[in-house]
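Tutorial, part two.
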Amino acid sequence: MKIFEATPVPHLYLQDVFMIGLEKYGCLYVFKTPKPAIIETGFSTTVSQTLEGLRELGIRPEDVAYICPTHVHMDHAGGTSALAEACPNAKVICHHLGAPHLIDPTKLIESVKRAVGPLFPYYGEMKPVPAERFIQVKGGEIFDLGDGYKLEMIDAPGHAPHQACFYEHKTRGLFTADAVGIYRKDSTGFMLTTPPPAFHFEQSLETLDRFKRMRLDWLYFTHFGVHAEPYKLIDEYRKVLTEWVAEVEHKKRELKDDMLVKEFFVQKETPFLKDFYEPIMIRSEVEMNVQGVLLYLKKVRGLV
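Running the prediction step on this input gives:
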């Protein structure tokens, strides 16, 4: 089986990195263009396979021009250091608020450990990336990949303040990071991703509304895959996210205690998710996403 699979989009290839041991849950992308670009990195544990896949595509590591983690959460950026070391001429394009956490990932690693709990062993190592390797971006910067392909950085706060989505002009495709949630069409459909410590509901909606005003033919999900009907999917996720935040707020007001709120949602979601995820992952992911909303409700709406 090939490591990189062709997508419906010309010159765009996808690698399933079997994140958390699951098929079609997490991926990274490569544009095979005169200046090749890798969007997302997966965990450090899959970088060797990514490099083997580049060889399959006929791309030499020294010819990779850009490595583009959409944000510094380890499922998107955990392999940045290893990829940067293996691709010595590549620049790392990263949101200016996130780059310091890749230059010194100490606090990031501790935050991820707290957020994902027992799932952390899946996440591998994360080593510092030299500061001189970065192009730190704020939004609107465009990077020419050659043959008419261009990546534009889109500032996309909400899921995290340091989230950068990338828009490719020629294909009219958007790399969604986690701004449009997790979309597993053939299993769970949409799932939330509202992690602590910086999920912000209104900023998430503003980001989705900004996407709706763009010219889009494709959405390129990290979780998971290439999908048409971008505006339909954005609307669907907006509805799912709005209902989720409202439901968590309602349960917080009803039950008061954060642990009781988390347990309520673990029990509620488990019957739906049990055919697709191990119990340990269901509990960890649901508790993490509830905690993200609870922190938002406390910080922004004053709900203690």
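The chain has a mean pLDDT of 96. In part three we will examine how such features are distributed along the chain.
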